[in-house]
Amino acid sequence: MFLGIDICSTARLRKALERSPFLRDEVFSPAEVEYCAGARVPEQHLAARWAAKEACLKAVGLSVLGYDLSRLEVVHRSTGQPELAVRSPELRADLERVTGSRSFTTLLSISHETDYSVACVMVMP
Ligand SMILES: CC(C)(COP(=O)(O)OP(=O)(O)OC[C@H]1O[C@@H](n2cnc3c(N)ncnc32)[C@H](O)[C@@H]1OP(=O)(O)O)[C@@H](O)C(=O)NCCC(=O)NCCS
């Protein structure tokens, strides 16, 4: 079992997107951008998604630089509970390799406060 956590500052994410607007599409999927745009403070939810992607890769000791992060997507179950959809074939292959399992699963939990968002990810073989 692998566990990762990450925290992301809302202000830092906002500044990064102002400086480099292309990051929005590079890091987040269209559905993530749409979901966050509908929130009162979109950057807070984008920060949570950045933290979720970092936490997943941190859990298994992989680098965020190695993958198309927009294809590691935060989605919601019908209950509202968030989960990760691993749509990047490269990342899926590496997660299979690290976990030693073709049927690995992930668990995700997200929380926000005004200034920071946190995400915790568990990866299980
Ligand atoms: C889920 C809940 C704990 C969120 O707590 P909160 O203090 O308001 O907000 P937080 O900042 O800590 O967490 C927000 C995140 O919780 C997650 N979340 C939402 N619903 C959730 C659920 N049912 N279970 C687990 N996580 C949930 C989301 O990922 C959300 O972040 P996002 O909108 O960026 O994806 C709270 O709304 C709650 O108790 N809801 C009751 C459960 C419920 O509504 N169930 C629906 C049954 S159909």
CA distance, first residue to last residue? 7 Å
The radius of gyration is 14 Å
Tally of DSSP helical segments? 5
CATH superfamily heading: 4'-phosphopantetheinyl transferase domain
Percent in strands: 25-35%
User: How many domains make up the 3D coordinates?
Assistant: 1
Mean pLDDT: 97
CATH class identity: Alpha Beta
Number of strands: 5
Helix content: 40-55%
List keywords for this structure.
single chain; 125 residues; alpha+beta; Ribosomal Protein L22, Chain A; three-stranded antiparallel β-sheet; two-stranded antiparallel sheet; 5 helices; 5 strands
Written overview of the protein:
There is one protein chain. This protein is α+β, with helices and mostly antiparallel strands and 125 residues long. A hairpin with a 3-residue loop joins strand 4 and strand 5 (116-124). The strands form 2 sheets. The protein has a 3-stranded antiparallel sheet. A two-stranded antiparallel ribbon has the order 2-3. The chain is globular and about 40 Å long. It has helices at 10-19, 23-27, 30-37, 42-60, 89-99, and strands spanning 2-9, 72-76, 82-86, 105-112, 116-124. The protein has a single domain (2-124), classed as Ribosomal Protein L22, Chain A (Alpha-Beta Complex). The chain contains 5 helices and 5 strands; from the N terminus they run βααααββαββ. Helix 1 (10-19) packs across helix 4 (42-60) and helix 3 packs across helix 4 (42-60). The longest helix is centred in the middle third of the chain and has 19 residues, at 42-60. Coenzyme A binds next to helix 4 and strand 4.
